[in-house]
From TrEMBL:
One of its GO terms (cellular component) is mitochondrion. This is Complex 1 LYR protein domain-containing protein. It comes from Micromonas pusilla (Picoplanktonic green alga). Residues 141-160 are annotated as: Disordered. Residues 65-128 form the Complex 1 LYR protein domain. PANTHER family: COMPLEX 1 PROTEIN CONTAINING PROTEIN, EXPRESSED. GO terms for biological process: mitochondrial respiratory chain complex III assembly. Signal peptide: none annotated.
Amino acid sequence: GLDSVSRACQLLGVRTLRVSAPARDIRTDGGGEAEDFIERSLDQASKQGAKKRDLTPGEVLTTKREALSLYRAVWRASFMFVWKNERGVEWKEVIRESARKEFEAARHERDPEMVARLLLTGRDYLDQAVQKFLDKRQKIIDEEESKDAGGPPRGVPSAS
């Protein structure tokens, strides 16, 4: 997966590749187009069996579009990570730099199945990191509201 996104996931405690149902509501891919492309690519790759083939020019354009979409989504999501790491560098900068390196390393990948896997894994990691961030943020908001109101956080039953 994307090293930067996996670092963010590790920081937030995300350990699985499964995207929860609430995460689908905030998908960063603009409505599932990436999933459709990846499914088509995986189906084509599995139909071809062990025979490897290069991408056609049309598939390259679509793949580039999907990769660019994922890169932009990582860039947008990085704005949420404003705190600094142990070296004093903002996490958003660490995420951006790492994402750039990961995308550059995979730039010349021609195997359609590998490209599809990279895109899918990167999207899943990103969605999980964003969902975990939003969940944590909501928990903090709920705790602050309960302190202000003097009661337990929303969704937590009182002791009475």
